[in-house]
Amino acid sequence: MTANAGFPQAHTGGYEPDVYDQLVQDTQNIIARYPQARSALLPMLHLVQSIDGFVSRRGIQFCAEQLGMTAAEVSAVATFYTQYKRKPNGDYTVGVCTNTLCAMMGGDAIYEELSEHLGIGHDETTEDGKVTLERVECNAACDFAPVVMVNWEFFDNQTPDTARTLVDELRLGNDVTPTRGPSKVCDFKHVSRVLAGFPDGLADEGPSAGEASVQGTQWAKNHQAPHSQHPDTAAETQGTPRDGEPHTGDEGSSAERPTGAGTPTTDDGKDLT
Ligand code: FES
User: Fold this and answer.
1) The sheet that has 148-150: what strands, in order across it?
2) Residue 211 scores a pLDDT above 90
């Protein structure tokens, strides 16, 4: 087996001079963030994807040269993580979560619908180069199951119909708006550059947490439940004051404060203590 087994023979030549110069400049920027150059490999692989649309053979060679590694070492890392693509990726990676909860809530049905509608299977790309379909593992968004990701932006509470409309819009070149995050989904190369550590200014755009995610916190806040407290402050409630803070019975201690605050109650106001 060769060092680049699994990678197609595209992009075997070097980069065009202006592209190469920009890559070198970006590489120096990335390497400067780490104590050792080789630590820059993960963002470097995203950088390569921002130019080639996947981790190309020339990209592997470039990373190896810049970081003082062998092509085999770079390939070993690139083939480990699913975010690094081993063949040209579509403009939009459409990832359908088919992990346990999403699968039960309809993720499997969404995947089957998209696969049939697009005529492609897992890790395959439509002929127009627009959409790469993937089954993905849990996106830590189970409270919005079933979830579909487009270039790692969330589309919550999907159905086979909404997911089909979503990919149709992408293939028509229309902007699509994630449930959370920025107002539109950028293409794969653009997002790859952001993941390489070159912000596009959109990171703080739009809501980051949906209503379902904050309901527990909100309930705890409204009811002043003990578990709403940070461990540091919870220690006081449990009779273990932090350094320099009053002990139970001292003036200013929680025992001297009006009752009610910090007392867990039911919805109808009954004291649970
Ligand atoms: S199972 Fe789909 S987001 Fe967790």
Assistant:
1) 124-125, 131-136, 92-97, 148-150, 153-155
2) no
Q: How does residue 243 score in pLDDT terms, banded at 50, 70 and 90?
A: low
- The residue among 219 and 134 whose pLDDT is bigger is 134
Asked if residue 266 belongs to a domain, the reply is no
pLDDT at 126 over 80: yes
Lowest mean per-residue pLDDT among 30-34, 139-143, 242-246: 242-246
**Nearest atom (ligand 1) to Cα of 138:** 4
- On average, the pLDDT of the chain sits at 84
Query: Strand (E) positions, 176-221?
Result: none
Residue 228 lies in a domain: yes
Atom of ligand 1 nearest to the CA of 97: 2
Name the residue of 104, 105, 142, 148 whose CB sits within 8 Å of the most ligand 1 atoms, as the mutation to test its pocket. 142
CB-defined site of ligand 1, < 6 Å: 97, 99-102, 138-139, 141-142, 145, 147
CA 139 / ligand 1 centre spacing (Å): 5
Residues 61 and 144 in one domain: no
Give the C-alpha separation, 226 to 126, whole Å. Answer: 52
Q: 154 near 141, Cβ under 8 Å? A: yes
Decide the pairing of beta strands 131-136 and 92-97: parallel
Q: Which domain holds residue 73?
A: 17-78
* Centre of ligand 1 from the C-alpha of residue 148, in Å: 9
CATH number reported for the structural domain that contains residue 107 in this entry: 3.40.30.10
